[in-house]
Structure formats: C-alpha cells, structure tokens
Design goal:
By secondary structure, the protein is mostly beta strands. It has eight domains: 220 residues, no CATH class; 59 residues, Sandwich (Immunoglobulin-like), CATH 2.60.40.10; 59 residues, Immunoglobulin-like; 58 residues, Immunoglobulin-like (Sandwich); 58 residues, no CATH class; 58 residues, no CATH class; 58 residues, Immunoglobulins (Immunoglobulin-like), CATH 2.60.40.10; 89 residues, Sandwich (Immunoglobulin-like). Helices cover 4% and strands 40% of the residues. It is built from three helices and 58 strands. A five-stranded mixed beta sheet has the order 51-58-57-53-54, with no helix packed on it. A four-stranded mixed beta sheet has the order 8-4-3-13, with helices on one face. The N and C termini lie far apart (142 Å).
C-alpha cells in the first residue's frame, strides 16, 4: 500500500518530469519532493501525448475554438459525460478510499458522500462505490491502451471499474454534459475492483495502486501521467488576466490597467509589484501574474494622439492665372473644406475665403485663409517674323512706368533686333507678364559660281547657283538653278529669295584640241625593244610613268606604260600594257665525260614550253647513251631558248675522284671569290666542313654545288690557314672516304 503516494514515483515518470525542466529530490526515507507548482503539469512518459482534462462546474462552450486548435496541434482531450449518484454512506466511502490510497480520508459534513483528504487544501473528495452508470473517454484518436475507461453493469451491485495504467482520477460535481450530477472518487492506479455489497474491510478487494499525488488547491488538480496540462475553467493556472486591446490615448487622458487575481503576486515592465498601473503616456506595458497554480503574462501597446493642428497660412495675394495649394496636413484625420471637398489638400485659383475643418480621435480644429488676385500687365511682341539681312526691327513691350527686363538684361521698353534669335521681355515685378518672339534674319541668298575657268576642248562646266527657295535669272534670261557653259564667255546669275537678291559671275575660256594614242597592248620577247611615240601637233608638255618628259619612250621590260599630255589645266592620257616574255634560259649543264656503263638524262624542262631536240624529238628530257653533241630548242610564248651539251664516253679514268683547291681569294674581283669542290667524279657528298685555327666551324655543306664565300657569321673571315674535313661515298664500291687538309684564305 502506498504512503502518501510519493515513494512509488516510477523512473519513467521521474525522467519525464525532469526532461520537462523540473527538479525532483528524494530523501533518506525514499520520499520524493516534487517541484513547486507541479499541481498544473503532468506528463505521459510512455507516449508523450499532451492532454486537456475538463472537470468542475464551468460551461466550456467558450473554449471550443481553443480546444479544437489544441487538437489540431496533436493534443488529446479527456472529459466526463455521465455520472450517477452514490449509494453508500460517507463513513464507508472514507474507509474504502483510505485503504485504496493510504491517505487519511474522513467523512465530510457536505451533502452527499463527501470526503476530506488530510493534507489537501479545501478539498472535497466525492466517492461513489456503487457505480450505476459512468464513463470517461480519451478523445481524438488516443490509442486504446491509453484511454481512461470506467464501465459498470447498469443497475447491478457489482460494477467492474478499470483505469488505464499509472493514472489517478479525481472529479467533482459538474454539469459539463447534461444535468448536474454528484461525482465521486472513481479509482487510482492500476486496479480491478470487484465490490460485493458493502465491504467492511480492505481485504474484501485487491487494490493495485501505483501512485497518487496528494497536492490540491481550490482551483487546480494534479493528474499524474496521462495529461500534460489541466484546465479548471478558462485558465490552466486559474489566473484571469486581460489588459485589453492595444489603444490610443488623447492628450490629458489616462488608462488604469488591472491585473488583480486572488492570492497573486505581480511584476510590471517598470518593476512595479502592484496589481494595477495607471497609464498616461505612449509605450508597451506588460504584467506577469504568479499564483500557486502557475503564471500568466499579458501585454498592451498604448499610443498618444494630439488633437489636429491646422495652419493654412496668412492671408495672401496670388497673381492672375496662378494657383495656391492649401494643405491641412494631419494624416489619418478627416477633412471638410468650404466647398464640401474631403481631401487633405485644396487648390485655390480664384479670389475668396477658404476654410477647412479637421477632425480626429482627439478633437476638431478649423482654419481660414483669404486669397486675393492681382491682374497681369498685357505684353504683345507680335508674331514670329523674319526679314532680310541688313535690315532691323524694333520690338516694343509697352506698359510705360513698369519695369522691363529683356533677354540680354537691358531694361528699356523697346529693343532693336538685327540678328536671328529668340527675344523675350518680362514686364512688371511680382505679378509679371512675359512674352517672346522668334525672329529670323533672312540672309541674302549668297552663292559662288567659283573662280574664272579655263576648260579643255570638248569640256563643259555646270555652273550651280542652287539655293533653297530662291528664284534665278541668268545672263541669257534662263531661270534654272544651274547653267551648262560650253563656250568661252562671261556667265552671271541673279538670285531672289524673300525679296532678298544676290548676283555672281564667272569667266569661262575653252582651250585648243589635242589627243594621244599609244596603241594596243603588246606581248613581245625579252630581247625586243618597243618605241612608244606620243608626239602631238599642239605645244604640250609630256609626262611618262617614270617622270620622263620626252615625247618618245623606249620600253624594254614588262609593265604598264602611260603618258600624260598637258597644256594648262587640260590633260590627255593614254596607257599601254606591254608584256616582255622571257626567252627560256636553258642549261643542259657542262659537257660530260661518262664511263661506258653510265648513262645520263639531259633535262630541259620549262613551264608551259614546247621542245625540239637535234633528232626532232619533242620531250622535255633526253636520255644519252653515246658520245655526241646534244641540242635542244625550248619555246615559251613564241620566245625560243637554246642550249647544247657534249657527252663523251671514256674508256679510262672511270673511278671516284674529287679535287679541293688549296687557296682562294674572296676579294670580289670575280676570280676565285668562292671555294668550291672541283671535278667530283662518281661520288656522293656526305658533308664538307671547314674550321678556323681555333676549331670553330666556319662553313658546312652536304651539297657539291655549294661554296664558301669567305665569310664567318656574316663578316669577312680573317686571312690565314683553315682546315677541312670531306666525307663522301664512292658510287663504284659504296665505301665512305674521309679527306682532310688545309686551305689558305688570301685577299
């Protein structure tokens, strides 16, 4: 049997309470001490469900929206909906309840079967032993294993009562559903109790009590595992707190904030601990109310507002045609103008009295302004106009006695115009009038027929007097904008534009006739000369493409030739294109000596050529197999080149040989200026290298035809002795030979 219920605190429940941020202690006797204010907080250590538990005499209809929001967030709801009256005496009920709980429970003087639990403050525990009809249900889909169920055989004397694990239930008289019923002490912990009539001792039944927490206040009930938050009325803590909606105070007003709750303590934003606070200024105000059952906080925002302040300004005068924007300001207020307008602004463009009335939460204010109009001076400079250059126009702004200001800063009432531009005048001060006029000075239609001209024979000149919008009159009475002059004489034209006239003239002279013709383009061989003759019967100057000035020019190379004949500004020019085709340069090579088993092919190949050999064959090459003189004519574009070569077949000296001179003189006298390999017979050159006395390579080649010009690194080499190494392969035996020696360079 539990005593007073604290020793049986399970590890899972202790863990759940600790995880919720609370502190639990246990003394040497094994008694647990729970945190202060734990009468409003319970947890489900198994499933972690949040619960709302409803009991008491209140009407819960106003809480329906909050209950639904709680369910939408995953909360669970427990409520009582049917309880009948008890049929046993208070004395018997107290005995059974004490035995079940291990608490000191005695009969109470209250109506019905009322019990008093020692240590519980002002608590009436009602208990029914014989339940004729009762049920409690966990709502919103709570798993069956965690639902609280109390069932009975209606009308029977042995009801079966079952309560979900680790759950103690206390309920009082209520009218949550249906008519008022007297409640009772249903059960605690895990147990199944069979009541056979009126028990006389605890041995009649088998209680299986896990724990019950004997902490109770007049408005708060403790429920062990099964519900996280309990409601008794409208607040989980039993605190009623509402500072009201955010509001506005007018100047001089105040607001009393009241957070009074029986037995509570208070903490305001300014540190005050009173239950009320009088507010007179803008700010955010909050209070924290604490009772034995919990804590609640509320906040309210207060703003101050002044009555409207309106200032339309002093009475004033505006110029005719102008307007004045009147602004009543005071955003958020309502407005009423003298014309019924309700905007915050009004545009005044006529003389009169204007007023506005401005209203807001804190009062009504009005203001008035008187507006007068001042007439404007009349100024008319006339329409935009134009006149010819050399003339002038006087602009008169009138209004004598009033100040004048022109665009250039002058202050006279008149202004003389002699050039194009925009002219304006401002007359008056304060209320003034401005007028402007665009004046265009029409220039005389000046044209230029140009300088006197000398034309070449057969030429004409177009005299152009074009001027937009003008009329024309030429020396011959014609009226076109242009005149074509083709003979010597004086030509003139007179232009008229907007009655502005201008005249110009030009003298035209026609020169004598002459021409030049170099003839058709020519194509010749390079050994030809062409004489180009440009001689004229008229006294002229000659200029050829090479700047020569003779009438005759001898052409000797391909190119474009031209000559220009001139007399004054008159020129005649002709061009001829002459192509000198090169006579084919044929080189069959030096005369040759061959061994009997050798042969040679003589090659006269030339691009785009035809061939004729001594035996009238026409191939570009000729294979030689016997001693003889071989002749070829090569024709390209009718130009013929010719060469011969003598080939002698020897019977002796058919061996490999080559000769290296032992000296040369690269002094540019045309004799021995380069060092060459001489008379190479039947060899293939591998490489030929020459070194100076310091071992530097000054020349290298693998081509027999190449020679050393006596230079080293682009500069003439020093006079002295040089050394060579010659490597070649003999065509007869296929062996490679190396020759070494020295060469003397002289200049």
């Amino acid at each position: 049997m539990n005593s007073p219920g604290f020793q049986s605190l399970t590890v899972s429940l202790a863990t759940a309470i600790t995880n919720n941020g609370h502190t639990i202690t246990q003394n040497a006797s094994g008694v647990y001490t729970l945190p202060a204010g734990f009468t409003t907080t319970c947890v489900d250590p198994i499933n972690g469900y949040d619960w709302l538990c409803f009991f008491g005499n209140e009407d819960y209809t106003p809480l329906l929206s909050q209950i639904q929001a709680f369910i939408d967030l995953g909360g669970k709801v427990l409520y009582q909906y049917e309880v009948s009256c008890c049929t046993v005496s208070s004395s018997a009920a107290a005995t059974i309840a004490s035995s079940l709980t291990g608490l000191s429970i005695t009969p109470n003087v209250n109506a019905g079967i009322a019990l008093t639990v020692t240590g519980w403050v002002a608590s009436n525990i009602h208990c029914c032993i014989n339940i004729t009809g009762a049920a409690y249900k966990g709502m919103d889909g709570v798993p069956i294993a965690n639902q609280l169920q109390a069932t009975a055989n209606l009308g029977g004397s042995t009801p079966l009562v079952s309560v979900c694990p680790n759950f103690a239930m206390v309920f009082a008289t209520n009218n949550f559903v249906g008519t008022a019923h007297q409640g009772g002490f249903i059960g605690v912990g895990d147990f199944n109790a069979w009541f056979n009539g009126l028990p006389t001792s605890s041995a009649v039944y088998t209680p299986l009590v896990n724990f019950i927490f004997p902490n109770d206040t007049s408005t708060c009930y403790l429920f062990p595992p099964g519900c996280l938050q309990t409601y008794n009325g409208f607040s989980t803590s039993g605190i009623i707190l509402d500072l009201g909606n955010d509001t506005t105070l007018c100047a001089g007003q105040s607001l009393l904030l009241n957070a009074a709750n029986a037995g509570a303590t208070y903490l305001w934003q300014n540190g005050s601990t009173n239950s009320t606070q009088n507010i007179t200024s803008t700010g955010t105000y909050w209070v924290q109310v604490t009772t034995a059952c919990g804590q609640a906080t509320d906040t309210i925002h207060i703003t101050n507002q002044l009555g409207p302040i309106v200032q339309l300004g002093n009475d004033t005068t505006i110029c005719q045609g102008n307007s004045l924007l009147l602004n009543a300001n005071n955003p958020g207020s309502t407005f009423l103008w003298q014309n019924g307008s309700t905007n915050s602004t009004l545009t005044a463009n006529a003389a009169g009295t204007y007023w506005v009335q401005v209203s807001n939460f804190c009062g009504v204010t009005a203001d008035t302004i008187h507006i007068s109009l001042t007439p404007l001076p009349i100024v008319n400079l006339g329409n935009d106009t134009s006149f010819c250059a050399g003339q002038s126009l006087v602009l008169n702004a009138g209004n004598p006695g009033l100040p004048h200001l022109w665009q250039n800063g002058s202050t006279s009432s008149t202004f003389t115009v002699n050039q194009s531009g925009l002219y304006w005048v401002k007359v008056g001060t304060g209320c003034s009038t401005t007028d402007s006029i665009q004046i265009t000075i029409l220039p005389k239609p000046i044209i230029n027929l140009g300088l006197d001209q000398t034309l070449c024979y057969g030429e004409t000149t177009l005299l152009n007097a074009t001027y937009p919008g003008a009329n024309y009159s030429w020396q011959d009475g014609s009226s076109n904008a242009t005149f074509n002059a083709s003979s010597s004489g004086l030509y003139w034209v007179e232009l008229n534009l907007n009655n502005c006239t201008f005249r110009d003239s030009v003298l035209v002279n026609i020169g004598p006739f002459f021409t030049v013709d170099l003839g058709a383009d020519l194509e010749l061989c390079s050994d030809s000369i062409v004489q180009l003759n440009a001689t004229s019967t008229v006294n002229v100057n000659y200029l050829w493409q090479d700047n020569s000035t003779n009438p005759i020019f001898n052409a000797t190379q391909t190119g474009m030739y031209w000559v220009e004949l001139s007399q004054g500004n008159c020129t005649k020019k002709d061009t001829i294109n002459i192509v000198f085709n090169e006579v084919p340069r044929i080189d069959l090579g030096p005369d040759k000596s061959l061994c009997p088993e050798e042969s040679v092919v003589i090659d006269a190949t030339t691009l785009n050529a035809t061939y004729l050999w001594q035996d009238f064959s026409k191939n570009p090459t000729y294979a030689v197999h016997q001693t003889g003189l071989y002749i070829v004519e090569v024709k390209v574009k009718n130009c013929i080149g010719k060469d011969t070569v003598y080939v002698d077949y020897l019977q002796e000296n058919c061996q490999c040989s080559i000769y290296i001179p032992n000296a040369f003189s690269p002094n540019e006298d045309g004799i021995n200026d380069e060092l060459h390999l001489i008379h190479p017979i039947n060899i293939q050159l591998k490489d030929f290298k020459i070194y100076n006395r310091w071992g530097n390579e000054v020349f290298a080649t693998n081509t027999i035809a190449d020679g050393w010009n006596g230079n080293y690194k682009g500069m003439p080499a020093e006079i002295g002795t040089y050394f060579y190494i010659l490597k070649y392969t003999c065509n007869f035996d296929g062996k490679e030979y190396v020759l070494k020696g020295d060469i003397t360079l002289i200049r």
